Amino acid sequence: ETSGEFGLFEFAAPPGSPGPLPHYHQGFSESFYVISGRLAVMSGHEWRTAGQGDFVHVPRHGVHAFRAEGDEEARFLILFVPGAPRERYFRGMVEMWSRPVPPTDEEIDAFALECDQVNLRDWPGYGTTIVG
What pTM was estimated for this model as a whole? Predict the structure, then answer.
């Protein structure tokens, strides 16, 4: 419906959920607008916390990760420019994790790569403290 100009998704991350691994996208940028709660966003090697009304932009090829911060659910919009077929990725991940046997790291990374997401499992700074 947007002729591929952008993709917009609403997402809710429960407290304590790990969020995605550090990763980047070759074909699109990704931005986050926080509706409620707090969203920790890693960009490069640094973590920052975004609160209600905050907007965070990650350019193409920008390494990033995100997760809910604190004791409440984080609700946010994810904007992809240009529009990327992320429905396939989100549905595929739900299907993989719904199986009786959890997916392997290799399966997850291969599927992510098919969806223009390059996972970086050993990215320095992934487990570091959040600033601000």
Answer: 0.87
